[in-house]
Design a protein that fits this description.
single chain; 326 residues; TIM Barrel; 6-stranded parallel beta sheet; 9 strands; globular; binds zinc ion
């Protein structure tokens, strides 16, 4: 099937997957590689440097070294592939598109390697353009919503300073995985839009990783987006992450937050359930299903890339008027 829409997917773990389990971006047995991206219609892909900070015996320095090695790998992969190019500002995506290249945007999933607000500058200089503040462990920035245990625990002081520094720098703030209270803190601190890169709707599936209707309206109200996650656990579709499940969550997102808030955050290569889409090359089938469910072509374009594009406008652009006092 010909890819009907250019696609910006806000979250995948292919960098971590290949770095940890072997293989490269060119061709692999995972959800995302160059051929699959082409078949799916990729315009830009967000690649997360995901750090599993699960070993209390390990010093934070070790995790930082690990993160920086993974970031080096990101650039090695891009270097090796003429069809893939990094993008640090929106103009890069335009430029890459003009030369028929897919854009790769570097993100960090696990803010726990951040030990001071200055680390935001360091990560920015390495090309990180989105940070998922927490993963499933409490960290230096805040608390996760892995289960319902930490729901009411908010951002740490460092977390608040980091969010301010990120907004000033032009690093997108990602609340996926973050506790409910942490979400409220981000909403109170930030003036501009933020996103949930790979989360679904709690009204459909009562999972702590999903967003309540109030959160959806909060994100949407300030121009942010929510990338629907393809995992069966969040879609609430039993064993398999189904197309119907993604459509149902997208429909709810649209009803609750408006079409401008709707985006894709596949979580490809970070989820391990069977997927009806199989891998990235299945994405055209998803848009066929959106059309059948009544989404117009214009709405599909917004889901596919226009909303993510809008969100990326301040990306990589330091805002001097928001300089934090340090
Ligand atoms: Zn995740």
């Amino acid at each position: 099937m010909q890819a009907p829409f250019p696609v910006i997917d806000l979250h995948c773990d292919t960098l971590w997957r290949t770095f940890t389990y072997g293989g490269d971006f060119k061709k692999n047995g995972y959800h995302i590689d160059m051929e699959k991206l082409r078949k799916g219609g990729a315009l830009a892909q967000f690649f997360a440097a995901f750090i599993y900070m699960g070993d209390p015996a390990k010093a934070i320095e070790e995790y930082r070294d690990y993160a920086f090695s993974m970031i080096s790998r990101f650039y090695e992969e891009i270097e090796a592939l003429p069809g893939l190019e990094s993008a640090r500002v929106l103009e890069d995506v335009e430029k890459n598109k003009a030369s028929n290249k897919i854009s790769a945007i570097l993100t960090l999933e696990e803010g726990g390697i951040i030990t001071s607000p200055e680390d935001i500058d360091l990560l920015f200089s390495k090309g990180v353009r989105l940070i998922t503040l927490t993963w499933n462990f409490p960290n230096s920035l805040g608390y996760p919503n892995k289960d319902w245990v930490h729901t009411e625990k908010g951002l740490t002081d460092l977390g608040k300073d980091a969010v301010k520094a990120m907004e000033q720098k032009g690093i997108l703030v990602d609340v996926s995985h973050l506790s409910d209270r942490g979400f409220k803190d981000v909403a109170a601190i930030m003036e501009g839009p933020f996103l949930a890169s790979h989360s679904c709707c709690r009204a459909i599936t009562p999972h702590p990783r999903n967003l309540t209707d109030e959160m959806i309206r909060d994100v949407a109200g300030r121009g942010g987006v929510i990338g629907v996650n393809f995992s069966s656990a969040f879609l609430g579709t039993g064993e398999t992450g189904t197309i119907e499940g993604i459509v149902a969550h997208m429909r709810h997102l649209k009803r609750c937050g408006g079409i401008e808030a709707c985006a894709l955050g596949s979580d490809f290569d970070g989820i391990f359930c069977p997927l009806e889409l199989e891998d990235y090359s299945g994405i055209p089938r998803l848009f066929e299903a959106f059309r059948k469910a009544g989404f117009t072509i214009g709405e599909c374009e917004k889901i596919a890339y226009r909303n993510a594009w809008r969100l990326m406008e301040p990306m990589g652009r330091p805002d001097e008027s928001k300089k934090t006092e340090q």
